[in-house]
Design brief:
alpha/beta, Rossmann fold, six-stranded parallel sheet, 38% helix, globular, 2 domains, 14 helices
Length: 417
């Protein structure tokens, strides 16, 4: 739905009113368009003493056509940067955190609108001492606060990079850096991302990194699912869009719009996993990426909730994912290098009044990822969960106005996704 307030503040009268009254100021975010440069300006790369990630990061960025600013430029008050990237992997105790202050304090106003901040560190579990682990864990507070302080569409992320690899060189880091620096990550901020070891093959075209891959998106007829299908197709994927038969017309419209195919299937049917596996095997021979997006809400407080509301939400949002994974993996339809992405929710992290069933199912999705990912790692398949914030859909359009506006304005972007 349209965010009329965000549109109004982009006008002259709106900007004046926001400044005078101190109202929320939703920035216009830098969005991705194929063919855009990775960043719209130079990047300032810094490092703590003994940092192990700065050198390979510099090589990755230079090879990607990014201009690395001369460190001397950091002292030029008029110089503006598209991103600040800092290797904090050399911080081994709490006193070493001063190095981050020394780097970011002078640059707090040096970023262009929709600039990027990326801090690189070592996973606390891999640290050599409790003090080092403490310091590395502290980086989460730094990046999340920067994401809220810098404003103007600036995002901030923490990337923990494994020590595994030749001579401590980070493995599989390039795709993460490219995503976080680009317009693709416009509404992603305050995140902690862990990059582990693995075999990564660079795509022939970074504008179409999924070229030739078969991608299944469930719940693709509308909302987040439809947007996912469009973005994945834009990035080169051959999308198989799935939704219930009742949404057949909308599903067909999405599939036709992106040049994909549509599958009408109720995932709660006993034979749904088998039918889906047979369809993927006969039409494509495999599925490279599975995006579990299908989900429903049946809201009531727990004391007023009937058993059907509980059962249906758990079945669609969580149990169906387990059943589909089991069959696709059992039949080896997801090859090595494959990806499974499950859509969770902030309700699964923080809970939500009147959504005990929904929050339980979405927390279960996170548990599914935590428990199954070590098993899939042995097969070369990654498994991750994504918990969206306030995303503009028909569901959020039905939220009462005051609650909807709070959801939009209280995040670091002051707007819905």
């Amino acid at each position: 739905m349209t965010d009329r307030y965000a549109s109004f503040v982009q006008t002259g009268a709106g900007r004046a009113l926001v400044k005078r009254l101190g109202l929320p100021d939703p920035p216009r975010l830098r969005r991705h368009t194929p063919g855009d440069p990775l960043v719209p300006g130079p990047v300032l790369l810094g490092s703590s003493t003994g940092g192990r990630i700065a050198e390979p990061t510099g090589k990755i960025l230079t090879a990607a056509g990014v201009e690395l600013a001369d460190p001397v430029a950091a002292h030029d008050a008029d110089r503006r940067f598209a991103a600040l990237v800092y290797d904090a992997s050399g911080v081994t105790d709490s006193t070493g955190l001063r190095q981050l202050y020394d780097f970011f304090h002078p640059q707090a106003r040096s970023l262009v609108p929709s600039g990027r901040v990326i801090v690189l560190g070592t996973p606390p579990a891999e640290c050599g001492s409790p003090r080092e682990a403490t310091a590395q864990r502290a980086l989460e507070g730094l990046t999340r606060s920067i994401g809220k302080e810098f404003g103007r569409g600036v995002t901030a992320q923490l990337v923990y990079v494994t020590r595994e690899g030749d001579a401590g060189t980070p493995v599989s880091l390039e795709s993460t850096l490219r995503f976080l620096l680009s317009g693709r990550s416009a509404y992603v901020s305050g995140q902690v991302i862990r990059v582990g070891a693995g075999t990564a093959v660079a795509p022939a075209d970074w504008d179409r990194p999924l070229d030739g891959q078969v991608v299944l998106v469930t719940g693709a007829a509308r909302g987040i699912g439809a947007a996912l299908a469009k973005v994945l197709a834009r990035d080169g994927a051959q999308v198989v869009a799935l939704d219930i038969p009742a949404a057949g017309d909308e599903l067909a419209a999405v599939a036709n719009d992106i040049g994909g195919s549509a599958v009408q299937l109720d995932l709660t049917a006993p034979d749904a996993p088998t039918r889906l596996a047979e369809h993927l095997a006969s039409r494509h021979g495999r599925v490279d990426v599975v995006v579990h997006n299908a989900g429903i809400t049946r809201d009531k407080t727990l004391g007023r909730m009937d058993a059907d509301r509980w059962d249906s939400v758990i079945d669609v949002n969580l149990s169906s994912q387990e059943r589909i994974n089991d069959v696709l993996l059992e039949r080896d339809l997801i090859p090595a290098g494959g990806r499974i992405v499950s859509v969770s929710s902030i309700a699964g992290i923080a809970g939500n009044r009147g959504q005990t069933n929904y929050a339980t199912s979405k927390a279960g999705v996170i548990g599914l990822v935590d428990s199954l990912s070590p098993v899939l790692r042995e097969r070369g398949i990654s498994l991750n969960a994504v918990a969206p914030g306030f995303i503009e859909t028909r569901l959020t359009a039905r939220i009462p106005l005051t609650i909807r506006e709070a959801g939009r304005r209280m995040n670091s972007m002051a707007q819905g996704g």
